[in-house]
Design goal:
The protein has helices spanning 2-6, 20-29, 46-50, 105-117, 134-142, 182-189, 202-206, 249-261, 286-300, 319-322; strands at residues 10-14, 36-41, 56-64, 67-81, 84-96, 125-130, 149-157, 160-162, 173-176, 218-223, 226-234, 241-247, 275-283, 307-309, 312-313, 327-328, 331-338. The protein is α+β, with helices and mostly antiparallel strands and 357 residues long. The strands form 3 sheets. An 8-stranded mixed β-sheet has the order 1-3-4-5-6-17-7-15, with helices on both faces. It is globular and about 65 Å long. Residues 1-5 have low confidence and may be disordered.
């Protein structure tokens, strides 16, 4: 299949529901990383999992003959830009099989994306590139004439926090949410209007777009009767999985020895990593964020998950709270992307929802 596909001209087209199985297979074939190779999977359905990224989704594919050799996603969702609500785009899930990563495939893919952009749904996009992906960072950083303009907006830190042992409780009035709390939760989430922050509605929490998210996954923090913070623990394993495909080099050879001294151990290959996301968080103060995170952390000890993942921008004053816990470092770089010239972006701290990446 591989040698035959290489001789075919690559064409781009919208993905169809009938491509679901092939798209899921593409994710297995295109892991990311160096010494630890990781695949980001969407089982049992590619399209149903992609819906979380926005109310309007376009998945497009690159085909050589009848084989899908690449794919990417353009999502449109309401966001805050400079404190005002607009429709913003999010570019994600770019995957190309190795034998097609050279040549004109990428440039032609961007031309196809530019054609999609001409529908006028969004003037500005964001995207996050894993910090270790030096090839992608050098490509977008070049800002060649045949590509949209990428503007570096700083680092997004997404440490994987290890759920090892309970820590001292922080006394506070915290309770689980009910459906009747959704108006208050949405109002709190939309309050700060951070840069690129998603705008939420009650319907977002009701229409099933956020799969496997239940009302009792939310925690609400009150001080003197006032709601001062919200945060959710979102388990996405039933529809999105992260799987270690391979350990290369010294890590692969020494993994059994490393695991004698490491808690938790490096996971087995082929098995989904058991973690959940800290998602939909908003707080009046850093201490409110710390209190909610500690509550969810302690609740999760001895549960089915070994880790939780939270994401904050490098300039977010809440970021040091994440590093109060044992963790494995992960980070990406946030970019704004424009096709039609620069757009003014003020100095508000960006907020990207890691669970929607």
């Amino acid at each position: 299949m591989q040698h035959r596909a290489k001789g075919c001209r690559v064409r781009f087209e919208p993905a169809k529901e009938s491509d679901d199985e092939a798209l899921r297979a593409l994710l297995h074939k295109t892991p990311m990383g160096g010494s630890i190779s990781v695949a980001f999977l969407r089982e049992p359905g590619y399209f149903s999992a992609t819906r979380i990224q926005g109310p309007f989704i376009q998945v497009f594919i690159a085909k050589a003959g009848e084989e899908i050799v690449g794919a990417a996603t353009r999502a449109i969702r309401p966001i805050f830009l400079n404190g005002k609500m607009i429709d913003g785009g999010y570019l994600s899930d770019l995957r190309v099989v190795p034998e097609f990563r050279r040549g004109m495939t990428l440039a032609r893919g961007y031309r196809y994306l530019r054609n999609l952009h001409e529908d006028g749904r969004a003037a500005i996009y964001t995207t996050v590139i894993v910090e270790d992906n030096k090839t992608a960072l050098s490509t977008v950083g070049a800002n060649r004439a045949d590509m949209p303009t990428y503007r570096d907006q700083g680092r997004i830190l997404t440490p994987m926090i290890s759920l090892q042992k309970r820590l001292p409780e922080i006394p506070a009035e915290i309770r689980s949410a009910t459906r009747e709390d959704f108006p208050a939760i949405v109002a709190k989430l939309n309050e700060k209007k951070m840069q690129f922050q998603p705008v939420y509605t009650e319907n977002d929490l009701l229409d099933g777009r956020f799969q496997n998210l239940q009302e009792n996954d939310f925690r609400m923090l009150f001080r003197q009767g006032k709601l001062v913070g919200v945060m959710a623990a979102w388990n996405q394993m039933p529809f999105r999985q992260t799987v270690v495909k391979n350990y290369a080099g010294a890590v692969g050879v020494l993994r059994p020895f490393i695991n004698l001294f490491r808690t938790p151990p490096l996971p087995a290959t082929g098995e989904p990593l058991p973690f959940f996301y800290i998602a939909f968080s908003a707080s009046d103060t850093v201490e409110d964020y710390r209190t909610l995170l500690r509550s969810i952390y302690n609740e999760s000890i001895d549960g089915p998950h070994s880790h939780m993942i939270a994401g904050l921008h490098e300039r977010d004053p809440r970021l040091p709270v994440l590093y109060e816990y044992p963790h494995t470092h992960f980070a990406g770089r946030l970019f704004s992307v424009t096709f039609d010239g620069p757009i003014e972006i003020d100095d508000r701290v960006p907020h990207i929802e890691a669970a929607l990446l």
